[in-house]
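Sample intake — 6-phospho-beta-glucosidase
Collected from: Pediococcus cellicola
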Amino acid sequence: MGLRKDFLWGGAIAANQVEGAWNVDGKGPSVADVATYKPNVDVKDYKKQVQITQDSIKQAMATKDTTYYPKRRGIDFYHRYPEDIKLFAEMGFKTLRISIAWSRLYPTGEEEEPNQAGVDFYKAVFKEMHKYHIEPLVTLSHYEMPLALAQKYNGWADRRIIDLFVRFCRTCFTTYRDDVKYWLTFNEIDSVTRHPFTSAGIIPDQSDNLLQDEYQAFHHQFVASALVTKICHELIPGSQVGCMLTKLTDYANSADPRDVLASFNKNTMNYFPADVQVFGRYPELILNYFKKNNLHIVMADGDLEILAANTVDFVSFSYYMSMVSSYDENNLTLTSGNTVVGGKNPYLKSTDWGWTVDPVGLRISLLQLYDRYHKPLFIVENGMGAQDELTSDGKIHDDYRIDYFRSHFEEMIKAVDAGVDLMGYTSWAPIDLVSASTSQMSKRYGFIYVDEDDLGRGSLNRYKKDSFTWYQKVIRSNGEDLA
């Protein structure tokens, strides 16, 4: 069968990891602008990497430093976007996934009118993309809510955030209605319980009951997602809105039924946010989880009807690795993954950051998601962080990256041949950027090398890696030539 003729090949980036210009042209600080680079913390210790407190926020906002707050500088996409988009076009991109930084349009999140400079910036970015016939895929919330909302309301734990987010989204829909057809609401929406501040603006030491606040935030995001899905469909005829899930594929460590049960429970909790957005209702197992854990989710009259009436058009997801589970963690060798720690699969190799490499797991994930949801799927993040070496003649020989993508594309195509309806694929990330979890530049994902180190030193010049030419060939052949 092969991939559909209109398959959307491309790449994915996030505003907070590439734009920089964190306090330029009226932009307000976001939760990403207080994330620190911690060279003395093990890169595999994600809890310490993403740890945040009220005091650490105050310390961050008392300085304009960009050395240890690298998401403030990014890779200067804010000024270099024409150059970068031209390089993406040279690879043959059909689509580019970006996010619109909420605090660039509404600096504190509570302004009545948007910041015009921010509005104009994204208008210019979309114009540049359309110049090369690149279809925008836009994430509305990608780990960059206004910091002021986290400090004032404890983020999405407060219901008042819904209306503020809806206002921001309505501005995006009305302003860019002729520019953007494909939208995603919340990036990796299931991540609220893994990093509540990054994902939902919840400051842990500001919560009396963190678990309660996390699941209350989930509900508010579900309602907000449903409301903006409805508004998008009304304002942009023919638009499509998707949810976005971190696909944390998990296997049982053994055939011991207790291990199988442990894996089932982990996968069930991973699926639940997408279940709500696709089916328009809470799963019974999740409602029972709330009861058993004394979680009292406050729902306003009409919330459940809003969820039921405004489900998503497609399911997008990130896939980087898989893990294994056991009823007894002493049976496991623990390793890191995409902001999680779990059991290491002895049959798989790992990256320098401990993430297992499991291309067959991508096929399994596609089959699982399509069998569960019967909706078109979109792989919007997949890739490997690696240490690249820039040679004296400006080359980066990254056969390891080509091998990674080739093996994953082969399995992706097998899933499509099995009957999965797959809309497209956007690699994370087509250009080196600041890592979401460790705030590093040395953890490089791109087909394009950016001359910048972990402390922000470098020319910021862009260099094509060997994988650049290879991905160009893959796109040109629509996945038929992976040699």
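Post-analysis note: The two ends are 19 Å apart (CA to CA).
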